[in-house]
Specification:
Helices cover 29% and strands 27% of the residues. By secondary structure, it is of the alpha+beta class. It folds into 2 domains: 4-117, D-amino Acid Aminotransferase, Chain A, domain 1 (2-Layer Sandwich); 124-284, D-amino Acid Aminotransferase, Chain A, domain 2, CATH 3.20.10. The strands form 2 sheets. Strands 7, 8, 9, 10, 11, 12, 13, 14 and 15 form a 9-stranded mixed beta sheet that branches. Strands 2-1-6-5-3-4 form a 6-stranded antiparallel beta sheet. A hairpin with a 2-residue loop joins strand 10 and strand 11 (197-200). The longest helix is centred in the C-terminal third of the chain and has 15 residues, at 270-284. The protein binds 3-[O-phosphonopyridoxyl]--amino-benzoic acid. 3-[O-phosphonopyridoxyl]--amino-benzoic acid is lined by residues 35, 158, 184, 187-189, 208, 210-213, 246-249.
């Protein structure tokens, strides 16, 4: 049976799930989105994802044409019609069908899209052996121009960085901000461990406020680990004992090499492995 995709109130077969070429989501990247996971039929941190989606929409003057409760129900319904318990959910809200000009006031109505699919997990060895990443030349968007806190359909900033990483053989790439500080990776937040403490760049560094990041901060604090949200430089990463990335798709993935510098002893560290286990329990219990 083909997967069903929700578009503005109805379910369509995947091949018939289409949006107009006049939609400003396509013409201008004018819209917002979320990537969410479902574990054993339960949607992980749904309320936080809905809040972030609504905040992103607010920042771009986009009114989502349904309530959060209705959106939550539509997500659960779409998982159910597809018989998906462990999966990936992509929610997209576009500005809708308009004219060829920028003016969003000429768009008829926002479109709400919910795609649920089986999750394409990263290969096991990434988690066992850790990733090698590089810092790329593409800087994270200046927060005063287009805030990285908005999860908008304008992902070119991240895509350019991703291409640079891929060209160097890395599946993730570290982005610096306009001040030369560490911001985040193309689709993941970054953490380091040093002297038993965890450190991660603060919001003001110009990052997406990752929901996995927040969960990991919570888990670490619960186990008595001090977590500092402080500006970090590349140097801080190079001399860290441990490094890992967090994101909805990746969950927690160890990093063992940055810009050809071995992190710690070059293997996933104990704090990283412990948090990976705790996160696994949190999502699968
Ligand atoms: N930073 C950026 C720039 C992101 O896009 C994260 C951090 C992690 O946030 P969460 O809330 O997921 O912990 C993201 C995640 C993917 C994918 O398939 C991920 C994201 C966007 C598009 C694709 O890995 N966002």
């Amino acid at each position: 049976m083909p997967l069903k995709v929700y578009i503005s109130g109805k379910h369509y077969d995947k091949d018939d799930a289409k949006i107009s070429v006049y939609d400003h989501g396509l013409l201008y990247g004018d819209g917002v989105f979320e990537g969410i996971r479902s574990y054993g039929g339960k949607v992980f941190r749904l309320q936080q994802h809905l809040d972030r989606l609504w905040n992103s929409a607010k920042a771009i003057w986009l009114e989502i044409p349904m309530t959060q409760e209705a959106m939550a129900q539509a997500i659960r319904d779409t998982l159910a019609v597809n018989g998906i318990e462990d999966g990936y959910i992509r929610v997209v809200v576009t500005r809708g069908c308009g004219t060829l000009g920028l003016d969003p006031n000429r768009c008829s109505h926002p479109e709400v899209i919910i795609i649920t699919d089986r999750i394409a997990l990263y290969p096991e060895e990434y988690y066992r052996d850790g990733l090698s990443i590089i810092t790329v030349s593409t800087l994270r968007n200046h927060p005063a121009a287009l805030s990285p806190r908005i999860k908008s359909l304008n992902y070119l900033n991240n895509i350019l960085a991703k291409i640079e990483g891929l060209q160097a053989g890395c599946i993730e790439a570290l982005m610096l901000n306009h001040k030369g500080e560490v911001a985040e990776c193309t689709g993941d937040n970054i953490f380091i461990a040093r002297f038993g403490k965890l450190m991660t760049p603060p919001n003001e560094a110009g990052i997406l406020e990752g929901i996995t990041r927040e969960s990991v901060i919570g888990l670490a604090r619960q186990s008595g680990i001090e977590v500092l949200e402080i500006p970090l430089t590349k140097h801080d990463i190079y001399i860290a004992d441990e490094c890992f990335l967090t994101g909805t798709a990746a969950e927690i993935v160890p990093v063992v090499k940055v810009d050809s510098r071995k992190i710690g002893d070059g293997r996933p560290g104990p704090m990283t492995r412990d948090l990976m286990q705790q996160f696994h329990r949190l999502t699968r219990s």
